[in-house]
Amino acid sequence: MSVEEKTVHYDSPAGGWGSVRGIAEVFGKEWATPLATETLFHQNKPGGFMCTSCSWAKPANYHPFEFCENGAKATLWELTTRRCKPEFFGKHTLTELRGWSDYELEQTGRLTHPLRYDRASDRYVPCGWDEAFREIGAELQRLDPKSTVFYSSGRASLETSYLYALFARLYGHNNLPDSSNMCHETTSVALKKVIGESVGTVVFDDLSTCDAMFFFGQNTGTNSPRFLHPLQEASKRGVKIITFNPVRERGLESFTNPQSPVEMLTRKATPISAQYHQVRPGGDIAAILGLCKHVFAADDAAKARGTRVLDVDFIAQHTTGLDAFEAKVRATPWEEIERESGLARADIEAAGQVYVEAERVCAFYGMGLTQHVHGFENVAMVVNLLLLKGNIGRDGTGVSPVRGHSNVQGQRTVGISEKPELVPLDRIAAQFGFEPPREKGVNTVEACEGILKGTIKAFIGLGGNFVRAIPDQDRMEKAWTGMRLTVQVATKLNRSHLVNGEIAYLLPCLGRTEEDKQAGGPQAVSVEDTFSCIYGSKGRRTPASDFLKSEVAIVAGLAKATLAPNPKVTWDAWVGDYGLIRDEIAKTYVEEFHDFNDRLWIPGGFYRGNSARERIWKTESGKATFTAPEVMSAAGFGDADGRYRLITMRSNDQFNTTIYGYSDRLRGIEGTRDVLLMNPAEIRRAGLTEGQVVSLVSDAGDGITREVTGLTVTPFSLPDGCLGAYYPEMNPLMALSHHDIQSGTPAAKSVPVRIKPEAGGPKADRCEPTRHSAHPI
């Protein structure tokens, strides 16, 4: 593969013809058939299948094409005609494959057969399902359950997740980390503490009734592009959209609707953000505190006129902690706010005035808030702002963490949690006739620490690309091989499948687009979106191989091979009819999932409820809680000469660790992922030049050497002291200890690093870079 590397300035809006071209390019690369196009027409619609990409809502009043560029890419990626058969592994050792890029591994196609790792030949070899289940079960029986980890990615359905959590607890542990630990665990911890619910309070209809939206650290154009439609509608009806983000993202600047012939033909774009503030990484605490400071000042002026800006009745009835919070805000000087946020007082006050004048405000945020050492404080500050004017628990208001992976929120809802207090264990005990373990399990960071120490002996991965997604990748890969057993359930080959324990299996599963035929006929699964709505999902396409099993069947097969029989645990019946699993879910989670099967196909999904939206606060005090921040920067480290704050980010041509190609169109970067983004003034101050090749070195201060080489210095609009580069390539720079203090979420949005120029000339010359070289498939 010859890769032409270039960096250009991109002036076009999000959406538009660029989005259409992006879909067409993936269609060609995946050798997709015409049936793939037919499948897209059923994506995110009642009776169809739910996208495996983001968790954005599937509205009852859907568009003709209810998919975005990235959603289409995810579907075409799954429906590829490429196949990764056992013969492929006969030609390539795992040592060789570890030299391939993420993209090249993805391009080998769909896995077709269950595989066992043969250490003597360093290759995967085909095996039977019964053999795989039998040996994995035997190994798990020999191990202490608490020395094992059952990880799950956000793609697994509610039915699979429920059985997986039940399997873990019947086996004897709560070691159930999932991808939420790496992104929105900060949300789960912070919102639970301050409003009593671990998820957001906004529902889809609130988007059409609010009159202001505040965005913090969320890249809609790449991470949840279908959100652009309601944002465009909101902008057109005069809603003020205020954005705080270190990176200027096209999706929050302007948008052309690809489903509007007029807009496409005229290339008309709708402006999205009325104000766009490039806050310093880690500076959101200070920025939001500045907003609150302006609100208090406006309230002081209003009191002099006999009115109020604060919702005093709401605050008196529904909140606690205002006095300490207000004292902190009033005592913090503007000079400190400006220094820590990187923003001018006048700009913060202009944003604050929008909040003051708005009657109904929704606040949205992403991993730009959660992935910091003090991410908890970031999230709590968003809630503080909303509480000042009673902007939680009314139509058109609320806090909305925009979740990433398709069902990552739903997995937590049905029991995927290392925290036993969040799971109705007494009900589960009565339902299935056993005593569930009550000890806290390990989260992602704790699982990694256990692998490094040698106390974790087995890892079962239900989807995902764990080894590639976690911090300290180089250290973790070396420790990974010390485990006794590693098992990966997957649809395509990725980096995690190439680093194995002593005994290892790679088990291929059905994709969500594919028909799932069981003893009871074709089956459906379900997922939960970011607004807490539940949808049915049914695949239509012929499976990629006759040897694939569903995730439900794989979990049941592993459980049957591991556990003693239990008359109340009917694995075979559940595999034959997923409706029986939904009946069990409804017994465990009565309030959320009553009449589950009857409500499965409601257009727009059914809402599982949210007490904070009803102003019922399940907190320690019984009220929503104002929290005074203990720090003014979320970064967790101070400034020093030569130290930068690195933001890791996704390109427009990827989803999580899945790399669809080398185009980051919305940032104007084509043909490479080996870039280091800096603002031009910062490049000059560092004595660097555009196109120079440099390395990044971790500045974690723990004595461990962490370095990523071969990055091309690229001018980009970023705040001073800030660098940008791609995830997951930068994960080796992240210390495992660098995470949110209260939730353990890796702090990937403010990584302390230094720049080291590389020897051998200042300019990059990589039109055919070895890192992206072609390999025979």
From TrEMBL:
Domain Molybdopterin dinucleotide-binding per the UniProt entry, residue ranges: 644-751
InterPro entries named in the record: Asp_de-COase-like_dom_sf, MopB_CT_YdeP, MoPterin_dinucl-bd_dom, Mopterin_OxRdtase, Mopterin_OxRdtse_a_bac, Prok_molybdopt-oxidoreductase, YdeP_MopB
Any one of the GO BP annotations: cellular respiration
Annotated GO MF terms: 4 iron, 4 sulfur cluster binding; formate dehydrogenase (NAD+) activity; molybdenum ion binding; molybdopterin cofactor binding
Region entry Disordered, spans: 744-777
Cofactor dependence: Mo-bis(molybdopterin guanine dinucleotide); [4Fe-4S] cluster
Domain of life (superkingdom): Bacteria
Recorded GO CC terms: membrane; oxidoreductase complex
Residue ranges constituting the Molybdopterin oxidoreductase domain according to the UniProt record: 110-484
Keywords associated with the record: 4Fe-4S, Iron, Iron-sulfur, Metal-binding, Molybdenum, Oxidoreductase, Plasmid
Pfam family, one: Molybdopterin
PANTHER family per UniProt: PROTEIN YDEP, RESPIRATORY NITRATE REDUCTASE
Record family assignment: Belongs to the prokaryotic molybdopterin-containing oxidoreductase family.
Record protein name field: Formate dehydrogenase
Lineage per the UniProt record: Bacteria, Pseudomonadati, Pseudomonadota, Alphaproteobacteria, Hyphomicrobiales
Originating gene: fdh4A
